[in-house]
Every structure is written in structure tokens, then in C-alpha cells.
Amino acid sequence: MQTIREFTRKTKRGNILKIVREHYLRIDLGCGSDICHRCQQDEDGVQLRTERMNRSTLFDFPHYVVLDTNVVLHQIDVLEEDALRNVIVLSTVLQEVKHCSSVIYKRFHEVVQHKPRGFFVFVNEHHKDTYVERKPGESANDRNDRAIRFATAWYDGHIMDVQQSATKKSKGKQMTRVVLITDDIANKEKAEKEGILAATAEEYIKSLVDYPMLIDKYARKDIEKDRETDPLFPMHLSMNEIIDGVRNQRLLQGAFQASRENYLEGSVNVEGYENPILIQGRDSLNRAVDGDLVAIELLPESKWSAPSEIVLEEAETIDVGEGDEADEQPAEDVLADAALKASASGEKRPTGKVVGIIRRKRRQYCGILQPAQLPGGTKHIFIPADRKIPRVRIETRQADKLQNQRIIVAIDTWPRSSRYPHGHFVRALGALGDVETENEVILLEHDVPHSKFSEEVLSFLPKMPWTITPEDYAERVDLRDLDICSVDPPGCTDIDDALHCRDLPNGNLEVGVHIADVSHFIRPGNALDKEAASRGTTVYLVGKRIDMVPDLLSSNLCSLRGGVERFAFSCIWEMDHEANVISKKFHKSVIKSKSAMTYEMAQIIIDDKTQNHNIAKSLRNLNKLAKILKKRRMDNGALVLASPEIRFQVDSETHEPLEVEAKQLRDTNSMVEEFMLLANVTVAEHIAQEFPECAMLRRHPRPPISNFEPLIKAARHQNFEICCDSGLEFSKSLDKCVKADNPYFNTMIRILATRCMMQALYFISGTLQKDQFEHYGLAAPIYTHFTSPIRRYSDIIVHRLLAASIGADSTYAALLDKNANAELCHNLNYRHKMAQYAGRASVALNTHLFFKGKVQDEEGYILFVRKNALQILIPKFGLEGTIYLNALKDDQKKTNNDVVFTFNEEDYTQRCGDIIFHAFDPVTVRLSLDSSNIQHEKLVFQLVKPYIKGFSIEIDDNNTAVGAETKSNDVEMTSNAAAAALLHQIASKQ
Predict the structure, then answer these.
(1) How far apart are CA 126 and CA 734, in angstroms?
(2) Which of 20, 107, 431, 765 lies 20 to 30 Å (CA to CA) from residue 34?
(3) Torsions phi, psi of 181, nearest 5?
(4) If you write DSSP's letter for every residue of 928-986 in order, what string do you get?
(5) CA torsion, points 792, 797, 803, 804, in degrees to nearest 10?
């Protein structure tokens, strides 16, 4: 059957456009029930089966379930549990979910695909008996609600009719019915008036006999209405008010970022503002959660503030009650709020307040339940592992079982009357402290996609055994005879780059960078490509890797392993012996790496003058050219930043760290880095010229002068002047910061310099002016990522652009879509940042494991002097920790032993008696692990030297801490990866 659909649409110019479409209705669509023998359906299409009916006290007879759109969108955690069976999924609902949330749609699609659950997709929009026309003046939402009710009623009548026609066979059996589950009260009332069996999701979930605990996963969207009397937070503006305010520029919008150091402080990145807008205080934060897209109102300049100088953490536990009294803001929060603002004494920044939430960052959080204070109660406080996330109030009947377990919770809503948001329990991960559980927490907390690749994704992998065909050789340049080798860290299996260098007859050198041709295996738009684009990057944890692409590609077919033929994308230069590029060319190739070496192995070959084989000659020439290239970059103003990274030796069975040491950097590290940088710059210039509007590039913005203030002050105290007028002047200033009595001083200066930097970002060339393309850290006017396509999706896009420019592959619409790729860049920037944070957290976890049961005294340096703390760097382990000095009540705080610390805001120092602490001062600290807080184990930093009576730990003749009055200055340890993050961004493989 054919019907005509007519509707009107308003164009951008205000014209009314009439659209007419043909809509086909079918008579051969089956109902999917094993009860029905009328419909035309094969055995595979029958999903609604009698043997797997849901048992409900509300509907104590066999029944199928139809889900409303809101139920799918809001109760996906319930639906993912193996509880509901025989569910009819209407195409109307499926399309609405897809339109509202691609994330929920993907999760629900996986549920539907799991056949044993009995989810049957019924295409009601194309069934002749269930399609409904939209009435004049009827909204799309009302029409869809009516379509859902109409299809439910038809289904119920159809199944009843089938059963009644077989009365003799089914005598004595209860009739199977169809029930509509909806959380739309108006829709439910209309359904009941029309004679449809209906229930809310909460009612139905509570009624399930076999799953009494499933109600814990129910997401309550309207727990309580905002109270007008004594609310804790200002009211949010309506969405219409927000849209109007943003349009009229009275309001700004951007992503909210909670502070890692102060739970009452955050910032919002707003387009057009050099620095993020500062948000301070509980009222101004106004229920924003890290990652939310928020609307903010900029305060008058007279009310602008500066970032706080204090480190502020919430109390570990709070009282939990069954009534509203538990939500009252305690006095210590008011005190902390005041202290936060009082400590903001630096350079003032634009400051604002959150006036509305445009879009919540819908995600799940890991943590633990706070131990219950009321036995048998169902209301509990969830404490997230990430200190940037607020506590969450949840209801659960499984509290006793969940104690000492890592659990996952989702936030549902945050009423004005509640100090904390309300959420629901999702699932338990495992025991606290278990290595596998804690690694899972790291991945979930940093939003790292790490589920197994789906069957659909794997279906696009090459079929094994895979071989290179004669047609492949004919389409590529054959470079198998070249002495190509790879140089990587120990244990690397995803080898995506290799090098060669050989003499040319004219006396020049041919240098080649050969990159794994991943884009050959991942074709645009298929499930494998979409999954790689979503993941964005491979994530490296200690002893574990979360691949961006399946292992068959990352560690096998794409990895440029020694002695095997592989597809590559080659960038080849002709250079003279002074590293000047004479010419360049790009082509797809077939290579056969002669050797896959570690940095150490390559360095041994270079240094061993007795080795004169072709690989040795190639490495020596590459090393010589790399030194020239590096000097040239330094002369142009490129920065050399520092980061003391550490490497763990991990037990292969227990996965616990056995030894920890600082990573060693050799000339070969720099050699690979220089040629990867050269390849990235060369490719960037080429694709920007060929595709000026849609080239994917990477920029590193020049930091504002204000960012350098802490570095300038710290260096000035050490009698060094830092000039930030240009990258070259800044680089020269860093070179001069050398102290003969402290060989580590220059490294610390460079670590501080790293903290001043901005984040490097992917962008599309057509979205910015050319003067904004600069990569400040590399002193490069243009830059991109080409050299790591196995582990970065950005490089795959760059490969496709480069291939299209040289005729090795064709373009496609999405590749040239500037706006779509700008959105892709946002995701890649987010994934890249989260991968760095996850790696940092993994180092912290393994450091805790390493120090368990150990007590060590180590030499360190003061990296920052805060208003109430000293941040200490331990070079041996590449760790940072904080020794707290002052409390929040005033600028000076007397400990129980009358120890007084005074902060000097002019020169950023702390004084205690005759002892003054400056940045870069050497200290001795004692390191030990405090496991008393099961949620956050802490690496305790206790001051040993300089000795301050009543504050430093007392040491007896056996070097043992004594004295009950000793103050424990504890800190949640972090690796020094904040410095490492930027270093990695501008290093060879970035």
C-alpha cells in the first residue's frame, strides 16, 4: 500500500516549503509472537516467546511489554539488566530515541540485538494496521504518543483475537495481554481511558517478582519539586530564557570544568575569551557538574576575582538523614566559601555565575557508599572517586552487600533544596583495592571506551589468513629492498613508524619516514571507522593498553614488525648533509622492516664503531641529521620542556609493580622525535595547501602573559629573569636558568614552564585564520599528526586527505565537511585529554601499590608555595605531593604545638620562625602510604628537613619517627604527569 505524507517546513529565509513524500505500508509484517500463527514470519523473527514471560504482581498474567520513548531514554540502566523479557520495541520509539540521544540509542541497540532477551522491533510506522496520520495542528510529540498507544492497542487486540480463535486449545490457560510502560502521566491517563493496560516504569519495576533489587537502578527524574522556602541554590533560568540571553549576548555558554584542587571553584571555557571564566562559591556554581554545558552570567568587573591560592577538600563524611534536614548546608561550607574568596589575591580574572544548565554531561561515576549511620535505611551518600564530582544521594536496599565495593552511580537530577544531586545505583564493579577493579575505575572515571569490539565492528576486519596480492604490489611503490628499521620503547607491539636513510649518487641523502597504512584497512563510514572515531586514541595504562582499533590491526597487520611485509604511507625527502630539504614526495608503499629495535638497542649500534652494516650507517646518518634539525628548531624558538617520567616493572601474574625507576632518554629518542616532527610539518603544509578549508591540523596556542606569572616570580627569587615576549626569548631564558650547586634546578624550571602552557588542540583549517595555526611549543607555523595512525584517529583523517591529494585514494563527502570535522575535532581533543588523565591515574595507582608497606625518606624540592600548602616534587619517582600548612579559618593557623606559618603574597613564600620556604628549595620528606580512607588511599608526605619542632617528624638514632604529637601532613599523590601531558603533546609521536 502507498500513502502520501504532506508537511510544511519553514526555510531560513522565512518561506514556507511544502514537502510531499510517498509512504509505503506493508501487509506482510509479522508480530513476532510464538502464539500467533496468522502472521507471515519465519522462526528467526519470532522473539516474543511464551516460556520467558515476566512475572509481575501488578499484572499477574502472561503479558508482553511496550516501552514509551521516555522509559528508554531515562531507564536504560534498568533495560540493560537481564530482567525484562518479551519487549515490543516500536519503530516510532526507536527513531525518537535515536533523535534525542545517540549514546542511549547505541546502548539500547545493543540490548535489542541480544536475542535471548526477547526484544522484538515492530515497524509500526510501515504496518497497514498501525500507521497513524498526523492530525492538523497536532504536535509531532503528541502524534508519536498517539502512534504508540494505537500500536499497543492493536497489538493487544491482535494477540487476544489469535488466542480467542484457538479457545479449545488454550482452554484453562490465562490470556496473554500487552502492557504499555510509560513515564508520561498524560499519556498513561489517555491509554487507560482507551482501555489499554498501562503502568509507570517505577510501578512495573517494583512489581517484578524475580528482581526485587532492580528498583535500585530506577532513575527518578522528579524526586521533589524545588521548594520556594529556604532553597540552597538559586533557581535556574528556563531554556527559553537561556536561548534568548545567549542570542542577545547577555549570557555566555561553555563547558564547565570543576577544579581539581578546590571543590568550590571551577571555570567555563567560553569562545572569544582568552582565559576561562572563573566561577567561585557554592551559589555561583549553582549545581553545575564537571563537563556540563552551562549558561553563565558575567559579573560586573568590580566583582571579578582571582583563582584561589588554597587547596580545599570536602569533609570525608557527612550526616545522612531520611528527611530534608540532611540537605541543609553545614556551617563548614559557609566557612570554606568565605575562605576561598578571601584567598583569591592574585590577578583578577573575568568571573561569572551559573544561571542554567543547557545540557548535562550524562555519564556514570565510580566510587563507594559512605558507611550507613542509620541501620536498615535506604537513603545513602555515594562518594565519587573523582574529587571534582559532588557526592550523590541514592536509594538502595543493598547497602550491606555494597560496603567495601567499588560501585557505579548515575546522576538523575539536582533539586534546589538538596545540597547534593540525586542519582541511582547502576552496578557493582568489585572489591576495593583489587587491581583489576581499580583499573576499571580509572577507565570509567576518565570516560575511556573500553568494551570489547562488537561483532559488527569485527566484521569489517580482513579475513585471515591475509596476504598482499599482485594487485596491491602494482598499486604501490615497492620499498622492500630498503634498509628500513623501527625504533620504539621496550615491549611495543603497535609499531606505527619506521625510518631509513641511504646515500644518493649525487652525494645527498634520501631519508624516509614510513607510517603504517591503517586507512587501507579502515574504510570511511563503516562500523570499524565509527568505533575508531569514537574512541579517538589508544589509552596506555601501566601494564595495559586500550586499543583504538582491534588487535588484529594494532599489533599485527598494521604494526611494522621486523621481517614482515607491510603496507605503509611513506614521506621521503632528499636532504643534503646539513639537513636542508631539497625535495619531498609521498606515496603508498610496501615495506619490509629489517629490524624492530628499542631505543637502547639503536643507541648501542650507533655508539659501537665496529658495527658498519647498512642499518648502523643509516642510524648514524639519521642521528647526525636529527641533531642539526633539533638545533635549528631551538634556534627558531622551540621549547625544551621537562618531565621526570617513571617506568614500572610489573609482575606478569599479580600485575603489581615490582620496581620503579625514572625513564632514561637517549639520543635515539630525540632522533625518532625529530623525523616524526619533520614528517608532521611536511604533511601539514601539503594538506593545508591542497585542502585549505578542511585540513585537520594541530595548534598549540601562545599562552597569555598572565600564565607565566608564577614562573617569573619563582625564577626571580633565584636571581633569574624569564622573558616571555617571544618563544625564542622564552627558550633562551630557560637555557640560562642553571645552578652549579643544583643540577636538577633547570629541570624544575622547565617543569614549571610546562604548567604555564596551553593545551594543544586539533582543529580544521577553514575554521581559523592562518595566524592562529601556530604551534607555540614547536615554533612551527603549521603542524598536524600523521605519524601514529594505529593509536590516533586524527592521523587516519590526515592519511585520507594526503592520499586524496596524491591520487592514491578518492575523497568522500564527510572528509570535506568542515563543520562535521570540527565536531570530530572536539571529540578527539576530549579523548586525548582523558587518555592523558587516565595514564596519570594509572601511574598514581601503581605508585600506591609500590609504596604499600614501605616507608622511605627521599630528597625533594618545593615546586609551588601555596597559601596553605607546599607542593613537593620527588625527582627519583617523578611524583608530586602536598604538605598542608594552614587551615581555612584565617591566614595563620596554630597547630597543637604552636607552630605558625605565614604566607607572603608578594614573593610566594611561607615562613615559620627563622625558616622560609621558597619555590625550588630542597627538602627531605618521608613517604608512606595511608590506607585509612578506603576510598582515597594517600601517599603521606611528612617533612623531615628542614626541621621544625612540632611539625617535622622526630627522628631517633635508628632513623625512626617518634612522638605522638607529630602532625601527619598527608596528600593524595599524583604523578608529575601534568608536566608530562604537554611534553607528550609536542614530542615526536604527537
Answers:
(1) 70
(2) 107
(3) -105, 115
(4) EEE-SSSSS-EEEEEEEES--TTTSPEE-TTS-EE-TT----EE--EETHHHHHHHHHH
(5) 180
Strands (DSSP E) found in 657-769: 657-662, 696-699, 761-764
Instruction: Report the C-alpha gap between 972 and 933 in whole angstroms.
Output: 11
Residue 865: strand pairing partners: 870
* Terminal alpha carbon distance of the chain: 57
| Residue 720, helix vs strand vs coil | coil
Judge whether residue 324 has pLDDT over 50.
no
Give me the mean pLDDT over the 239-268 stretch.
90
Question: What pLDDT shows up at residue 271?
Answer: 83
CA distance 261 to 318: 20
Q: How high is the pLDDT of residue 162?
A: 87
Residue 213 CA to residue 202 CA, distance in Å, equals 12
The alpha carbon of residue 96 and the mean position of all alpha carbons in its chain are separated, in whole angstroms, by 27
Q: Look at strands 379-384 and 392-395 and give their pairing.
A: antiparallel
- The phi and psi torsions of 122 (rounded to 5 degrees) equal -110, 120
What three-state secondary structure class fits 739? strand
The whole-number pLDDT of residue 530 equals 94
Alpha helices for 547-589 (secondary structure H): 551-552
Q: Coil, helix or strand for 685?
A: helix
Q: What is the dihedral of CA 98, 100, 102, 104, to 10 degrees?
A: -90
How far apart, in whole angstroms, are the C-alpha atoms of residue 296 and residue 358?
10
Q: Which residues contact 511 (CB under 8 A, 6 or more apart)?
A: 499, 500, 501, 572, 573, 575, 622, 625, 675
Tell me how far CA of residue 186 lies from CA of 76, 82, 190, in angstroms. 22, 29, 6
Return the amino acid letter for 119.
F
- Assess contact for 303 and 344: CB atoms under 8 A: no
Residue 29 backbone dihedrals phi, psi, to 5 degrees: -85, 125
Closest residue by Cα to residue 626 from 666, 583, 568, 685: 666
Question: What secondary structure letter does DSSP report for 557?
Answer: I
- Write down the mean pLDDT value for the chain: 84
Q: Report the 3 state secondary structure along 853-870.
A: CCEEEEEEEEEEECCCEE
More confident residue, 223 or 706: 706
Closest CA to 151 of 173, 121, 114: 121
Please give the single-letter amino acid code of residue 349: R
Residue 975 backbone dihedrals phi, psi, to 5 degrees: -75, 160
Residue 104: what residue type?
Answer: I
As a whole number of angstroms, the distance between CA 831 and CA 535 comes to: 7
CA nearest 250: which of 123, 361, 353, 162? Answer: 353
Evaluate if residue 172 carries a pLDDT over 70: no
